[in-house]
Amino acid sequence: MAHTISDECINCGACDDSCPVNAISEAGDKRAIAADTCIDCGACVDTCPVSAISAA
Q1: CA nearest 42: which of 52, 51, 32, 55?
Q2: Which neighbouring-strand residues pair with 35?
Q3: pLDDT digits (tens, 9 = 90+) for 3-45
Q4: 28 within some domain
Q5: Which first-to-last residue range defines the signal peptide (predicted)?
Q6: Is the pLDDT confidence value at 2 over 90?
Q7: Is residue 56 in some structural domain?
């Protein structure tokens, strides 16, 4: 199951470079993870300064 980004996201982009498959993109006022691209590695979780990313 892909990771998800909650409404706590501040759209800082810190997670973008941590994703090895480029599944994270800007979606309005926050970031979003493409479920069909995410490999569920969790690399983005530790890079988020507001803990907005979690396993779905």
Answers
A1: 55
A2: none
A3: 999 999 999 999 999 999 999 999 999 999 999 999 999 999 9
A4: yes
A5: none
A6: no
A7: no
Question: How many other C-beta atoms are found inside a 10 Å radius of the C-beta of residue 28?
Answer: 7
Amino acid 34: pLDDT = 96
Domain of residue 25 covers: 3-51
Three-state secondary structure call for residue 27: strand
CA gap 33, 28 in Å, rounded = 13
Domain of residue 47, CATH code = 3.30.70.20
Q: How confident is the model at residue 56 (pLDDT cuts 50, 70, 90)?
A: confident
Q: How far apart are CA 43 and CA 19, in angstroms?
A: 6
Residue with tokens 């490999």: 39
Cα–chain center distance at 13: 9
